[in-house]
Amino acid sequence: MTPYKELSKEQLQAMKADLEKQFEEVKAKGLNLDMSRGKPSKQQLELAMDMLEELKSTDKLKCETGIDCRNYGLLDGIPEARRLLGEMTEVSPENIVIFGNSSLNVMFDTVSRSMTHGVCGSTPWCKLDKVKFLCPVPGYDRHFRITEYFGIEMINVPMTPTGPDMDMVEELVSTDPAVKGIWCVPKYSNPQGITYSPETVKRFANLKPAAEDFRIFWDNAYCIHHLYDDKQDFLVEILDQCEKAGNPDLVYKFVSTSKVSFPGSGIAAVAASERNLNDFRKHMSVQTIGHDKINQLRHVRFFGGIVGMHKHMKKHAEILRPKFEIVEDTLEKELSGAEIGTWQNPRGGYFISFDAMEGCAKAIVAKAAEAGVKMTDAGATYPYGIDPKDSNIRIAPSFPTVDELKLATEIFVLSVKLVSIDKILS
Ligand code: PLP
């Protein structure tokens, strides 16, 4: 395909007229589709329905310590759930505390506690003049909303194919004591699907922060969310690396079964050093008498262990893979060589990240909405909702049916072409 920029004004105008006709035709199909979030489809949710059949009789409600899961107790979670989530995120059960139904909730609480009570006895962040967080971009909008909510200044750090720009991270973390944290999605990142390289993980573990209360917020949301059997990314385990580097308290790992079982009704956990977990426990023991152990038990019984969980994830992959392929094949066929956008084909996770020509993302998202496709707001993948280049768009292929997705991708591609032509002609 000839790059659009090399086409004459007349050629572009003729193309535009034809594309507009096609756009009106697809618009007339009256699609009304919300693709703004990375939600599992109904078909995926069906996969875990048998979980609701577990625990039907009273004798099944005891965990392995003999405690009745219907009652209070075991603030850290039942041992078998700590083991399961430990295996999921590759740490030993002693380094795991099970929380409630959402890891994002735990991340919010962790920032909130640091603001009001400090980190392991240090000055509460709310008493400091300035608190800053590093935000690898593009990144997860809900991370950025947490730090924005607490008035924490966010600093963009560009993502590279091996993870965040580590020269910049090392420089900022080691020289500025106001930098207290960094948001990371280290495996199949949201939205690019990038997995941090071994070198990146090692550099994280060896950071020498200027602030003693600096922590890495390592959101391992997509740790077992592969799309392929034969093409998988591997992530070096960071807690172990931190320990080896003499920095055992540097990282909090967050994990949940939201996109393994049921989003909003899964189980979440934190993996961290003993010192950090004791800090969490101090707060948690005031906040709650215990989390939902019935749900923990249900998950353990349903998956039976990490092997069962991996098998279950393969069923998710079989549903998700064709959807990713629809988007990737359409982008390749329609846009390859046109030089009006770039994208990544991830090996796991929930998203495809698309970078349009500068200054086009907002207009593309608005154009797709005109034909009934609601995408994640342009800018959402950046702190404060501001993408300096107005270029990044997050595509979430999981929720629509295959037929809906085909049409939605067609609409997206037409929107990209039309907006890009306008941009070139302007
Ligand atoms: N972290 C990342 C990177 C996500 O993409 C999501 C959901 O999309 C979450 C966390 C939410 O996790 P939870 O449902 O455990 O709160």
UniProtKB/TrEMBL annotation:
Coiled-coil region(s): none
A Pfam family of this chain: Asp_aminotransf
Name recorded for this polypeptide: Aminotransferase, class I/II
An annotated Gene Ontology molecular function: L-aspartate:2-oxoglutarate aminotransferase activity
Native organism: Blautia hansenii DSM 20583
